[in-house]
Design brief:
The complex is a heterodimer of chains A (about 375) and B (about 280). Chain A has 2 domains: about 10-190, Rossmann fold; about 270-380, Rossmann fold. Chain A contains 13 helices and 15 strands. Chain A has helices at about 15-25, 40-55, 65-75, 90-105, 130, 150-165, 175-180, 245-260, 265, 290-300, 320-330, 345-350, 370-380; strands at about 10-15, 30-35, 60, 80-85, 110-115, 140-145, 170-175, 180-185, 230, 270-275, 280-285, 305-310, 315, 330-335, 355-360. A 7-stranded mixed sheet of chain A has the order 3-2-4-5-7-6-13, with helices on both faces. In chain A, strands 10-12-11-14-15 form a 5-stranded mixed sheet, with helices on both faces. Chain A is globular. Chain B is of the alpha/beta class. Chain B has a domain at about 45-220: Rossmann fold (3-Layer(aba) Sandwich). Helices cover about 35% and strands about 15% of the residues of chain B. Chain B is built from 11 helices and 8 strands. Chain B starts with about 25 loop residues before the first helix and ends in a 22-residue tail after the last strand. The chains are: A alpha/beta (about 375), B alpha/beta (about 280). The interface between A and B is large, with 53 and 47 residues.
């Protein structure tokens, strides 16, 4: 008989990054996947097609990325923990649906395995697309894993944030880690902490579906449970009624954006390496944080006071953390695998306390530790 | 004054509706409510979906769970909802823009899969909400805001399109045939599988004034009715006689397995095990 594997494959594995995404999602309780073929994200869809039916979940190969992202939002409203996965060009198409999910406050997770335009070279060039590509004003949460283990771990983080804040969360993958095999430890189910969206505690006639404090997230009942809610992209009041009143528009977006910005400290995560007395601080995210750490360690061994601020949360920007290192450091190196996009955010968050030097590489290859070390030596002179 | 017995199906506080006087979409909303009442639809288990456009507004007025506000993506929403909870009754209200233009691929793919949903198309033969531009359903030679010299493109026949794609219940009426149209919606609501009911409908404000040169709703209905033939009449007519005609009636009504996801677990049987 075809053997039905369990939901959580506890144990040690040597696994492809794209597969770790799937196992992380399953461990997080994901029970709906929709996607459209695109390299280098295909292994996610392929493993989902095998794994979802095994655990009683649903798999859809959509006719395009728009179908995929909207099927995800529909399934989520019907009660699923739902996700999709794509790569840069496909992520373009999904922006419309991501905008809807933001405005209608629908929890979901989107994995973008970044690639260069038309080719599958390594890149981090979607870092701005992830934040700004949908129309209208909004906030979005983006997490940047740097290893196969973190692809697994951050899928759980992503679903938890999506459910807690009723919002889309993007996991920013890269060809570097998506198509690499590495050790992966999957813990026992009991050791995995999953968050589920809150449901109304009052009956339908007492429930006001979009009423919450300026920093809060309202409960979300499943479709078909008697609450009869209108989920519209259009500006809507606390009852869900579409309104052209500017006050309604302003109040709605103040909360939809505010539930992220006013909870920045709960959302933002960073890692610090050798920052105590660092004069030269590298700021890096995703796979670029790996050669950056190697370079910092080499500099330390050479007596250069260099440290690394590694961004786990890329959006919202870890403003406080970057500002703090800028106040102490003499120079920041903004390391990234594109023409230097996020460096602008690092400069902004540094508030002029120190110089920010861009260390960029835009040729479809990850930085080597030596290249980054050379950049450290350059400013250490 | 006696209250309309269908008012209980409308969302509290949502009236007055925004339809123009004489709008065909508003008539179709009435037909839907009559049909839903007739077959006793449980509005707690109903999900009404609208994209963008005049017809897409219908779900906003219904006392049901509803999704609204993105152009053309009604069927992807419905696909996610039905896969997650097949017990829900999902009804899509789409104009010809949502159904035949921006959402055209979603429509034929959902029909191909035999997704268990009801699509009610109000085909007013133009983009009404945006001011009367040409649609993939606009009859040839007629003038719209973007075909000032007359429409040069041939229109889609939506019912033939989804029938070919794999829909299992398909019916077309016009707004002059309220009784038959209501019955078709009632049948669709009881049908297991992909069903589409199209209404050729008057748009006095835009299609009427621009293509027909009259804003009179009744003249719009009359023009559609004059250009309509039944399926039985159509069978006896030549292709030339049917050019530009709206064929009314049931196109197809049969059963086949409904969509349950692109990958379904199958316990493989190997030799020596089981049967």
């Amino acid at each position: 008989m075809a053997k039905r594997r369990g939901r959580i494959l506890t144990g040690k594995h040597f696994m492809l990054g794209n597969y770790a995404v799937v196992e992380g999602a399953l461990a997080a309780g994901c029970d709906f996947f929709a996607g459209y073929p695109i390299t280098p994200a295909n292994e996610i869809s392929e493993r989902m097609a095998a794994r979802m039916p095994e655990v009683g979940g649903k798999f859809l190969q959509g006719e395009d990325e728009l179908c995929s992202i909207y099927a995800v939002t529909g399934a989520s409203l019907a009660g699923a923990k739902a996700m999709t996965a794509t790569a840069s060009a496909g992520f373009n198409y999904m922006q419309e649906g991501i905008g809807y999910a933001v405005a209608s406050e629908i929890p979901c997770v989107i994995v973008d395995v970044q690639r260069c335009r038309g080719e599958n070279y390594a890149t981090q060039s979607d870092v701005m697309q992830m934040r700004w590509a949908a129309s209208g004003d909004y906030e979005i949460i983006v997490l940047a894993p740097a290893s196969v283990q973190e692809l697994f771990d951050y899928m759980i983080k992503a679903f938890n944030l999506a459910e807690k804040y009723r919002t889309p969360v993007v996991v920013m993958s890269e060809t570097t880690i998506a198509l690499m095999r590495e050790n992966l430890v999957i813990p026992n189910g009991n050791d995995i902490k999953n968050i589920n969206r809150t449901k109304p505690t009052v009956p339908p006639h007492e429930f006001v579906p979009f009423k919450a404090d300026r920093d809060a997230t309202p409960p979300l009942p499943d479709l078909g449970t008697g609450y009869r809610i209108l989920h519209s992209l259009n500006p809507h009041d606390e009852y869900g009624g579409i309104s052209w009143d500017p006050d309604v528009f302003e109040t709605m977006y103040d909360r939809v954006i505010g539930k992220i910005t006013r909870n920045r400290d709960d959302i933002v995560e960073t890692e610090e390496y050798f920052l105590d007395d660092a004069e030269i601080v590298l700021v890096a995210y995703g796979s670029e944080s790996r050669p950056a750490l190697d370079a910092v360690q080499k500099a330390q061994s050479e007596g250069i006071k260099a440290g690394l601020l590694r961004l786990i949360t890329v959006w919202p920007v870890p403003e406080k953390e970057i500002r703090e290192v800028a106040q102490r450091a003499s120079v920041i190196l903004a390391v990234e695998m594109n023409i230097g996009k996020y460096a602008g955010e690092v400069e902004r968050a540094s508030h002029g306390y120190c110089e920010v030097v861009r260390v960029t590489k835009n040729r479809g290859e990850i930085h080597t530790a030596d290249e980054i070390y050379a950049a450290i030596k350059e400013v250490a002179r | 004054m006696k209250e309309n017995p269908l008012i209980k199906y409308l969302r509290e506080g949502s009236l007055p509706h925004f339809f123009c006087p004489g709008c065909g979409a508003a008539q179709v909303m009435n037909y839907f409510l009559q049909a839903a009442d007739k077959v006793a639809v449980d509005f707690d288990k109903l999900v009404a979906i609208g994209g963008v456009g005049c017809t897409a507004r219908i779900p906003v007025y219904l006392s049901a769970d509803a999704l609204h506000g993105v152009h053309g993506r009604t069927l992807p929403w419905a696909t996610g909802i039905k896969l997650q909870n097949p017990d829900l009754k999902v009804v899509i209200f789409a104009g010809d823009g949502d159904a035949a233009a921006i959402g055209g691929n979603h429509l034929i793919q959902a029909a191909r899969r035999n997704l268990d949903v009801i699509v009610i198309v109000v085909n007013n033969l133009n983009f009404g909400m945006t001011g009367g531009q040409v649609a993939p359903t606009t009859p040839q030679n007629l003038r719209t805001m973007t075909t000032p010299y007359g429409n040069v493109e041939p229109p889609f026949d939506l019912c033939e399109l989804v029938t070919t794609a794999g829909a299992t219940f398909v019916s077309r009426w016009n707004t002059a045939h309220g009784h038959q149209g209501t019955n078709a919606i009632a049948k669709a609501l009881q049908h297991k599988g992909f069903s589409l009911v199209e209404f050729v409908a008057q748009c006095p404000t835009n299609f009427g004034r621009r293509a027909l040169r009259t804003g009179d709703p009744w003249k719009g209905i009359q023009w559609i009715e004059d250009n309509s033939v039944t399926r039985d009449e159509a069978k006896k007519s030549s292709a030339e006689e049917l050019a530009g005609k709206f064929v009314l009636g049931d196109f197809v009504d049969y059963q086949k397995p409904v969509f349950n996801g692109s990958s379904v677990f199958i316990e493989e049987t190997v030799e020596g095990e089981g049967k």
